[in-house]
Write a structure and sequence with these properties.
Methyltransferase, Cobalt-precorrin-4 Transmethylase, Domain 2
Length: 272
């Protein structure tokens, strides 16, 4: 609700989760219902946007695949301007706002301008993808740590320093992108075993979700996956199920190199 007496409104940096409205937090729903203005990114689904009351202003500020509709600086200016006018503002981000969401820049802008804010966590893509594949990201024997990485990196950064990153780890690549062959080469050149299991999960927790299982040696030949997608690399990926289901539709892991490829099949819901 709008504030009065010239006071700035509060900004809620809110996680929309992987896409399904049933995975929104209770707090996320609360702030969406009380907002005056919502600034979603392109990963926020129509299912979630439909929860926003009709009187609320919704202003898309998405940035996808390097095609920037709105620059980060412009986003910050928009949310600060709206809050200064007394509006309650929700900055709605796919997944969790604090994981590869440039939240720190927005936090800094809000602090600099004296705007009160709250961070509302969301289900991050790594957890949603692992849930879809029915695997654990950690394992007592094979993976005592999880490493989140982005395969979409700013141009100022140099090469990754892998060191002992691979050891006893599950690697989760956000935004793995189109050039999986280069990533495959980087992993192999830095000592990762080509037989290491991988899972490419696209559109996790959405009706068109897909899970593809392969090894690192097969990674470069994998067809492009629909965005958003996550790549999980590590021993725990070997345990992914091959007969996953979502809302009564057959949804299967596709083991690369095997003949059986199961796609979404409506008829499976009838038990045929």
């Amino acid at each position: 609700m709008a504030s009065y007496a010239g006071l700035p409104g509060t900004v809620y940096l809110t996680g929309a989760g992987p896409g399904s409205a049933r995975l929104l937090t209770v707090r996320a729903v609360e702030v969406l219902k009380s907002a005056d203005a919502v600034f979603p990114d392109d990963l926020v689904t129509e299912e979630i946007l439909a929860l926003i009351p009709s009187h609320v202003g919704v202003y898309n500020v998405g940035k996808r695949c390097g095609l920037k509709k709105t620059s980060q600086q412009q986003i910050q200016e928009k949310i600060v301007r709206a809050a200064r006018s007394g509006q309650t503002v929700v900055r709605l981000k796919g997944g969790d706002p604090l994981v590869f969401g440039r939240a720190q820049e927005e936090i800094a802008a809000l602090r600099e301008n004296g705007i009160p804010f709250e961070i509302v966590p969301g289900v991050t893509a790594a957890c949603a993808a692992a849930a879809v594949a029915e695997i654990s990201l950690t394992d007592r024997k094979a993976a005592s740590k999880v490493v989140f990485l982005s395969n979409h990196r700013c141009s100022e950064k140099g090469e990754r320093l892998w060191g002992k990153t691979f050891e006893d780890s599950t690697l989760v690549f956000y935004m793995p992108g189109r050039d999986l062959e280069s990533l495959q080469q980087e992993l192999l050149e830095n000592g990762m075993d080509g037989a290491t299991p991988c899972l490419l999960i696209s559109q996790a927790e959405r009706p068109a979700q897909e899970v593809v299982r392969m090894t690192i040696r097969d990674l470069g030949s994998l067809p492009r996956a629909a965005a958003p997608s996550v790549l999980i690399v590590g021993a725990t990926g070997a345990a992914a199920r091959v007969d996953l289901h979502l809302e009564s539709q057959a949804q299967a892991v596709r083991p690369l190199g095997e003949e059986m490829v199961l796609e979404l099949a409506e008829e499976s819901a009838s038990g045929d």
